[in-house]
Amino acid sequence: MTPTASTLAARPQAAARLRGVLSPVVTPFKPDLSPDPDRFVRHCKWLLKSGCSGLAIFGTNSEANSLSVEEKLGLLAALIHSGVPASALMPGTGHCALPATVRLTAHAVKQGCAGVLMLPPFYYKGVTDEGLYRYFSEVIERVGDERLRLYLYHIPPVSQVGISLKLIGMLLAKYPGIVAGAKDSSGDWSNTKAMLDEFGKSGFDVFPGSEAFLLDGLRHGGVGCITATGNINPGPIDNVYRNWRSADADKLQAGIGATRKIMQKYPMIPALKSVIGHFGNDAPWRTVRPPLVELAKEQEAALIPELKASGFAMPGLAG
Amino acid sequence: MTPTASTLAARPQAAARLRGVLSPVVTPFKPDLSPDPDRFVRHCKWLLKSGCSGLAIFGTNSEANSLSVEEKLGLLAALIHSGVPASALMPGTGHCALPATVRLTAHAVKQGCAGVLMLPPFYYKGVTDEGLYRYFSEVIERVGDERLRLYLYHIPPVSQVGISLKLIGMLLAKYPGIVAGAKDSSGDWSNTKAMLDEFGKSGFDVFPGSEAFLLDGLRHGGVGCITATGNINPGPIDNVYRNWRSADADKLQAGIGATRKIMQKYPMIPALKSVIGHFGNDAPWRTVRPPLVELAKEQEAALIPELKASGFAMPGLAG
């Protein structure tokens, strides 16, 4: 399926590459634990007007692995129907099962999404680079659309199955342009730096998986970050992105670190939802889907005042 | 949904509890990587006439986590349509996403399956017993069928999310009879023994996840085993099960250990498929779905002679 000049000319163009601050959007649930598309759309629109240049919906922080393929298709349709541009979207589409990954990826590409963020299949452990190469190759071949922009999702602390530099090299050699970049949520700057050093100059876009590495990443050729706290603190994080060459950059970076430090004392996903529920004056946001549990009352009672004391705010969130 | 005497009387009875040797049936694929129902049915029928008292289809060794829900529904339909009794089936139905687990579980129960073997949701790590309790409770409530016999699947080396004794106790207290047992694939006899000691006498059926613990399990109140090598060596393993009170039991147990020891030198799933392909004279069996890779030629060239030299055979497999 290597695209030729003629097929490229005959087909719709791929969306422009995303850069800047992307939020792995948390997914609101109704009391019956079904996804809540209205709250989801509202939060996505708030993020886009508050500093996010893109939305990495269906990520780890979205509880995406607790959603069925059909639920993800429904939420994506709701977003696009509401006027959120597909060119701002980088949905997570990786599942353990090849057909599920192909189905959601092909759909996202047809909808015009800027890219997809793809977990490796994560049930079987100790798999080889060759096995993962075959998996991603099968997905790319089956999707068979040169508009696909595939971002590899490296998050070994959760998935336990990672994306090695060798695997990136194998995939880039066969699918240049299609394999567009990676999110590195290893939490290991030396790995992010190695990705940037080895592949950054050849059009492979690296997003650190935390704003802690935003400035360091930008200084080494990174293109932004995709970070949990982007759900609640997009403006200040975007400010680092926009001003990373300024004399103030280190100070701005230190500022966003304070919010992250507070959040990291708590289980991240329930804590994000508590914060959105509190600052948006919208209690139903607190609901999480099992196996997660919402923040305990005493945890929230400690978290919110600490955030407020730090000067944290979510301007424009509460209707 | 606690069943009352009247609802129990009004509804079909649950199938009898499975005991003995269950095989987590390997799933054959066609060259295009789609499941091969004909080979699947043939292998299931061979297993049932060769020593297996039940079939734990869609287990870890079935590459079930590489199959979509729809593919599993298709294979289950093919089996039942072919005349394999649902009362011999314990399909794996656990997915990361609650709706997927509910969908496959409800279907299996409606089809009359003897039980379901349920993985915990395994993407999010470090989840609490409370979160897992809520997950399993939601599944049980949504399935809402008193014929459900749920076997908890404890396989921390792969899933990384386990089933603690505390969680079993919590679930048994709320859903006695529905929560019917567990497969313990921890590989840790002290954990299997603790499950048996704590819950074995109250009708909680424990299957060790390996024939290595078959005899020890039976001597402590276990009901059989569910083991990968049941795919190729069901007769001798069943022989231990049938004769565990005999004077020969330890000798029989030692005999099945030899086959396991040879298999454990290789990646288990591709090795099982190579052995079935070789002894069944049916090369297409070797196909695995990515991220797994088939056994290398030199590995198979070492494995098969070693098995033959040990006296291993698969009577009745080759047409």
Sequence-ordered SSE layout with sheet pairings:
Two copies of one chain form a homodimer.
Chain A: H1 5-10, E1 20-23, H2 37-49, E2 54-55, H3 69-81, H4 98-110, E3 116-118, H5 129-143, E4 150-154, H6 156-159, H7 165-174, E5 179-184, H8 189-199, E6 205-208, H9 214-219, E7 224-226, H10 234-242, H11 249-263, H12 268-279, H13 297-309
Parallel strand pairs in A: 1-2, 1-7, 3-4, 4-5, 5-6
Structural overview:
The structure is a homodimer of 319-residue chains. Helices cover 44% and strands 8% of the residues of chain A. Chain A has 319 residues and is α/β, with parallel strands linked by helices. In chain A, the strands form 2 sheets. Chain A has a 4-stranded parallel beta sheet with strand order 3-4-5-6. In chain A, strands 2-1-7 form a 3-stranded parallel beta sheet. Chain A starts with a helix and ends in a 10-residue tail after the last helix.
Question: Uncertain spans of chain A, ≥5 residues at pLDDT below 50?
Answer: 1-10
Number of helices of chain A: 13
Strand order of the largest sheet of chain A: 3-4-5-6
Helix content of chain A: 40-55%
What is the 3D form of chain A? globular
What characteristics describe this protein?
8% strand, 319 residues, 4-stranded parallel sheet, homodimer, globular, 3-stranded parallel sheet, alpha/beta
Short structural description:
The structure is a homodimer of 319-residue chains. The first copy, chain A, is α/β, with parallel strands linked by helices and 319 residues long.
